[in-house]
Specification:
The chain is α/β, with parallel strands linked by helices. The protein contains 15 helices and twelve strands. It is globular. The protein starts with a strand and ends in a 5-residue tail after the last helix.
Length: about 375
């Protein structure tokens, strides 16, 4: 068996790259295919401290650096898999680790769960670093929609596409399907938003859309679920009160496990009006629960959503377009059921954890150097 060193983000904090990192670390197919070692690339333990400097994070970084050296010397991997940050302080933090791997002559594959290279490529210093990092590296992207971000540095012949996948909650999905069949007469249509309270996830756009829906005298209720981040629960609640729509929106903080399952089962529509995303796993969760989704043309989202068939896509930051699609779904229960069923089928075909692991094993096997 071939040796692979995985340097990847692991929880905490819980975000897309860390969740997928845990799936890679625990993946049966991956561990059966390779002799694997895993190192946590993260130095932050909460979402709130990501991007902030502290002595504790500096010490964690030096410990991480020496763990990598130890594995390169003792384990002697044939391939090193890294999930780096695309830009900014995170990129500057990850670049020396990638340089270290290259110094040891280990073949490198970089798996990007974020984007932003193209926004910094015209800066002289960043351009030099990108040229070094991408030289002779293989790249995994979540979608071909994201290739323009790295086109300047990487020929497409060295790029692989691997959509994310998540475990199936089959029992919960059967309950959700039953909910659609029985319906809930007399209750307002329930809209669910589930993400950290970050402006770029579109939470403020959603609030504007809810105000428009209220003005159209549409019967609905929206639940905003998410932990404090760029915005706090208190700040979001104040914005809602200022808009005069507190009767239509509840902000309930973060929910996990059985509580999150209950919210997904009780919802009628899932909304994710993001304007800065790559591959939001929460869309796959909504599709598992046979929920129709309204999201945006952003990152790999058009690869997840079949616009008009499984879900709806709207332009970014367009609260009126978002309200229009939500109104269509609120008024048409049969369309919600039809789209939700199609989304569930799409998840089963394309986005299961087994499909993700199969793709990963195939990609990593293909880029390993020829055995001697």
């Amino acid at each position: 068996m071939r040796k692979v060193l995985f340097i990847l983000h692991l929880p905490p904090p819980v975000h897309g790259a860390a969740v997928m990192g845990q799936y890679v670390k625990d993946g049966r197919q991956i561990n059966d295919a390779f002799i694997a070692r895993f190192i946590n690339l993260g130095t932050s333990n909460t979402v709130e401290v990501i991007g902030r400097n502290s002595l504790r994070k500096v010490l964690r970084y030096f410990a991480l650096f020496f763990r990598v050296i130890k594995q390169l010397v003792v384990f002697r991997p044939e391939l090193c898999y890294v999930t780096p940050t695309a830009k900014g302080p995170g990129f500057y933090k990850d670049m020396p680790l990638i340089a270290l791997v290259k110094l040891f002559g280990v073949r490198t594959i970089l798996h990007y769960h974020n984007k932003g290279v193209s926004t910094r490529q015209d800066r002289f210093f960043d351009n030099l670093l990108y040229r070094f990092v991408f030289r002779n590296s293989y790249i995994i992207l979540l979608s071909d929609h994201l290739y323009p971000d790295v086109r300047r540095y990487v020929p497409e012949s060295r790029v692989f596409y691997c959509p994310n996948g998540i475990p199936d909650s089959a029992q919960h999905n059967e309950l959700k399907k039953a909910d659609y069949e029985t319906g809930a007469p007399g209750k307002p249509t329930e809209i669910l938003f589930l993400s950290h309270l970050i402006r770029s996830k579109g939470v403020l756009v959603l609030i504007e859309s809810c105000k428009l829906l209220k003005g159209r005298d549409i019967d609905f209720h929206c639940t905003i679920v998410g932990g404090d981040a760029e915005l706090t629960k208190v700040e979001v609640e104040k914005i809602i009160r200022d808009q005069g729509i507190e009767s239509k929106i509840s902000v309930i903080g973060p929910k996990h496990g059985a509580e999150k399952d209950r919210l997904l089962k009780s919802a009628d529509i899932f909304v994710h009006p993001s304007f800065n995303d790559c591959f939001p796993l929460v869309l796959l969760e909504a599709m598992q629960y046979s929920l129709p989704v309204v999201s945006t043309f952003e990152g790999a989202i058009p690869d997840i959503i079949d616009d008009g068939i499984t879900d709806f896509l709207v332009p970014q930051k367009d609260s009126e377009a978002l309200a229009d699609k939500l109104e269509i779904l609120i008024r048409d229960q049969e369309l919600r059921r039809k789209m939700g069923k199609a989304g569930r089928a799409r998840y089963e075909r394309e986005f299961t954890l087994e499909r993700f692991e199969n793709r990963m094993v195939e990609i990593l096997t293909g880029v390993l150097p020829a055995s001697t």
